[in-house]
Design a protein that fits this description.
By secondary structure, the chain is an alpha/beta fold. The chain has a single domain, classed as Rossmann fold. It has helices spanning about 20-25, 50-60, 70-80, 95-105, 120-130, 145-155; strands at about 10, 30, 60-65, 85, 110-115, 130-135. Strands 1-6-5-2-3-4 form a six-stranded parallel beta sheet. Strand 5 (about 110-115), helix 5 (about 120-130) and strand 6 (about 130-135) form a beta-alpha-beta unit. The longest helix has 14 residues, at about 145-155. It is globular and about 35 Å long. The termini are close together. It binds magnesium ion (MG). The site of magnesium ion has 7 residues, from loops.
Length: about 160
C-alpha cells in the first residue's frame, strides 16, 4: 500500500531548504517542529547550523514552533532561537495552530510546516491546510510512541 502526500516537499535537513524559493512562492511564515527537526531527540541544544539557518529565516519570515515536545524543550528553543514555541501541542490535532494563527495573524496558504514525522506533522498540515516540508530526523533516537509511528510510516509510505 502506498499513499501520496499532497502539497509537500522533502529535504534532508532544515538547512537544505532554499529560503529564496519559499520567498518566491509567497511564503510568509514557517512553523517548525522541535524533536528531531530543530533539536536531536536525545540532546538539549540546537545545533549551530540550524541556529544560523533560523537566524537568517527570521529576517525573511515569521518563524515559530508548534511541537508535541515537553515544556522544558520548548523553553530551550525560546531561549536559543528567540522564537515563540508551543509545547504539548497534541499534533496532529489543530488546536495549537488555531491559537498561533490568531496570535500571529497567519494564513494557511502562506504558511509552511516543517517537521520530521508523517503521523504528527504531515497530518497536522493536512488538517490545517498548511503546506508541508518533511525533513529527515536529526537523530535515530525517538520516543517510544514515535518508534511505532515510524514503523507504520514505513509500511504505508515506502
Ligand atoms: Mg519531530
Amino acid at each position: 500500500m502506498s499513499l501520496k502526500l499532497h502539497n509537500s516537499a522533502h529535504f534532508k535537513t532544515l538547512t537544505d531548504i532554499p529560503m529564496e524559493l519559499l520567498e518566491r512562492m509567497g511564503v510568509k511564515a514557517l512553523v517548525v517542529d522541535v524533536d528531531n527537526t530543530l533539536m536531536p531527540y536525545d540532546k538539549d541544544e540546537v545545533p549551530a547550523p540550524i541556529k544560523e539557518w533560523i537566524e537568517e529565516a527570521k529576517k525573511r519570515f515569521i518563524v515559530l514552533s508548534i511541537a508535541n515536545t515537553r515544556p522544558y524543550r520548548a523553553k530551550i528553543v525560546k531561549q536559543e532561537l528567540h522564537i515563540p514555541a508551543f509545547s504539548l501541542s497534541l499534533k496532529p490535532l489543530p488546536f495549537a495552530w488555531w491559537r498561533a494563527k490568531k496570535k500571529y495573524h497567519l494564513e494557511p496558504a502562506t504558511t509552511v510546516l516543517i517537521g520530521d514525522q508523517l503521523f504528527t506533522d504531515a497530518l497536522f498540515a493536512a488538517f490545517t491546510g498548511l503546506k508541508f516540508i518533511r525533513v529527515e530526523p536529526l537523530s535515530h533516537k525517538d520516543a517510544l510512541h514515535t518508534k511505532f509511528t515510524r514503523w507504520l510510516e514505513k509500511k504505508l509510505f515506502s
